[in-house]
């Protein structure tokens, strides 16, 4: 795993002021037609549901043998992104998958849905 450069504390404060990160549960997974890499995730944050378009399909297939097994998993998401359209699907949030030392994704407990991280 590549180590990132250190940042100054003031740089962190600038980023932290802008980001809103919440814990969400993936309740639906769909392949996006016309691409081998993108998935549409529908994510429940407890008080609202949002859509994420993500390019983690290949990694999920490597880890689980089937990308659909991410359904029911819980992860942090950036929730205050401006919506953007990818392959005709509007993405409202971005998954922030946690990884272990070999790059496999780690997930949270479902009891944390809706919790604000930042």
Account of the 3D structure:
The chain is an alpha+beta fold and 118 residues long. The chain has a single domain, classed as Beta Barrel (OB fold (Dihydrolipoamide Acetyltransferase, E2P)). It contains two helices and nine strands, in the order H-E-E-E-H-E-E-E-E-E-E. The strands form three sheets. The protein has a five-stranded antiparallel β-sheet, with no helix packed on it. It has a two-stranded antiparallel ribbon with strand order 5-6. A hairpin with a 4-residue loop joins strand 2 (39-44) and strand 3 (49-54). The chain is globular.
Q: Cα distance, first to last residue?
A: 24 Å
What sequence of helices (H) and strands (E) makes up the elements? Answer: HEEEHEEEEEE
pLDDT average, as an integer? 91
CATH architecture: Beta Barrel
Oligomer category: single chain
The name of the CATH topology is OB fold (Dihydrolipoamide Acetyltransferase, E2P)
Percent of residues in beta strands: 25-35%
Shape: globular
| Strand order across the largest sheet | 3-2-1-4-7
Annotation field: number of helices: 2
CATH homologous superfamily placement: Nucleic acid-binding proteins
Helical content (DSSP H or I, runs of 4+): 10-25%
Q: Please provide the count of β strands.
A: 9
Number of domains: 1
Key phrases:
118 residues; OB fold (Dihydrolipoamide Acetyltransferase, E2P); two-stranded antiparallel sheet; 2 helices; globular
Summarize the structure.
This protein has helices spanning 9-18, 57-64, and strands spanning 21-31, 39-44, 49-54, 74-78, 84-86, 89-91, 94-95, 98-99, 105-106. The chain is of the alpha+beta class and 118 residues long. A hairpin with a 4-residue loop joins strand 2 (39-44) and strand 3 (49-54).
């Amino acid at each position: 795993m590549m180590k990132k450069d250190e940042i100054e504390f003031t740089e962190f404060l600038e980023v932290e002021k802008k980001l809103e990160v919440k814990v969400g549960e993936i309740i639906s997974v769909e392949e996006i037609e016309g691409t081998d890499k993108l998935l549409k995730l529908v994510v429940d944050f407890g008080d609202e549901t949002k859509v994420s378009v993500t390019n983690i399909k290949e990694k999920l297939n490597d880890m689980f043998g089937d990308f659909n097994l991410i359904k029911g998993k819980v992860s942090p998401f950036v929730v205050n992104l401006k919506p953007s359209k990818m392959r005709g699907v509007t993405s409202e949030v971005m998954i922030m998958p946690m990884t272990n030392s070999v790059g496999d994704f780690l997930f949270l407990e479902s009891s944390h849905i809706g919790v604000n991280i930042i």
